[in-house]
């Protein structure tokens, strides 16, 4: 391992290469993030116990619940630095809902801290509190920014909300002042802010281009529906055709069911007997049974017209029973004018339970179960998993359609254009603050430390050479001027070589720090390019400091021969020293035994 690290030092690549960009300055899942999330409960416990602080506590509790939920952890466990994860179907919807919930709660928390709940946090705890809050913001943006839905589309549009949270933390903590990067907690806070902002950029861009995204989704939806392979499967694979028929029917059924559920309180009823006794369903009964274009009748007509050549006799029988039962409901439930004259509690409970337990459940009982069965049959019958292919393809169509409709509603909101202008301004301010003002200050801080450590290492290394050579010259009673001669001689003296390896460890540790620092500083410049966050102020610094670092590395290269010598000897020592030392111990034991027997020709080594 030591040999590899030193080798990487000797073959250091050119600085700030735009062809080898590093993506891991802002890793998606870090130990820091886990520690921050574990401290969320500490934040809650640290709030003042006053009634007006409860709203803030509730918002923080929402964030804590989201980022510790099973689905969130499941996605995070799939992420490693520099990678992304693509989700399908219900997983996309679940993560999108969680991301939006967390983003809204974070934004609301910061707004409360800036206003009515500002006194709920003791002043001495504010830096720690805001550092944790910023870390959680980074956690949310890191996960969301690294996960895509079908077609590579973003799973959420929370970037606009997160940018507000990032800005809010900065204003609360530094009030437009520079960070003190010598303070580790302030350095960590800045990196949380910077990473949260850069990782939210894709979501922000998507939010600002929703009109384009709607057209993209419409095109993707049509491309899948007209996909030649799907067309071929529907025509030549009976199970695939049956799946498509069931899928089409379920698409229509889902829309009808949504309308039924939206009907006021039609399925919203507690199992508590006292609450069940207070609701009536006369209006809903009238709409459902006595209106020819009711949602219930639309659902029944869909069932009557549903034809599927692979449908089982049991499913067909169930459809027949349900449609027959619905057609005779007017014999059980009276029209509105009669219903309101009756004691309608029992009628209301019976109608509500029928809709909830029979009609709504039938949507999954018939169509969803059929789709699962046809998918399995198609997978078993053919060499390729045709069932999985058509199922995934049609689910993507469904996702694209829902996403398109959701975005269309957002575009049509009265304040959408105003929101766009606000996000544009927020992004401009954050780029100016984080990238143009703070990042140059941070880069200079890192480069200064890097150069100081390089020069300190070179001085320490010279001292190491002088002291160790003087020590071994005395031990070996010979004159040596460089490490190359020393390491060659030590191969014949493994008992002294072990001392040398021990003293060399510190040199290795120092050189490893230099390697990591140089690599890390290069990553910051490269990450700015990778995340499309490079601004002129930082490019100037990266270019200038890269020249300074090259000059320092030229001086450092003067140690090339000595480092190569250590590298060569270290490799030999790892392979041979234990074996050689065993020989030396055996030989020393023999000498000791001979000396004890009075053989004065042998002297035991010091």
Question: Which features characterize this protein?
Answer:
single chain, 606 residues, mainly alpha, two-stranded parallel ribbon, 25 helices, 2 strands, 74% helix, disordered N terminus
Describe this entry's structure for a reader.
By secondary structure, the protein is mainly alpha-helical. It is built from 25 helices and 2 strands. It has helices at 2-10, 31-38, 40-46, 54-67, 70-76, 89-114, 126-145, 159-173, 184-199, 201-208, 210-225, 228-236, 238-262, 273-276, 282-290, 295-305, 313-327, 336-339, 345-381, 386-411, 416-476, 483-490, 494-530, 536-556, 560-596, and strands at 85-86, 147-148. A two-stranded parallel sheet has the order 1-2. α6 packs parallel to α8. The longest helix has 61 residues, at 416-476. It starts with a helix and ends in a 10-residue tail after the last helix. Residues 1-21 have low confidence and may be disordered.
List the helices and strands and how they pair.
Elements: H1 2-10, H2 31-38, H3 40-46, H4 54-67, H5 70-76, E1 85-86, H6 89-114, H7 126-145, E2 147-148, H8 159-173, H9 184-199, H10 201-208, H11 210-225, H12 228-236, H13 238-262, H14 273-276, H15 282-290, H16 295-305, H17 313-327, H18 336-339, H19 345-381, H20 386-411, H21 416-476, H22 483-490, H23 494-530, H24 536-556, H25 560-596
Parallel strand pairs: 1-2
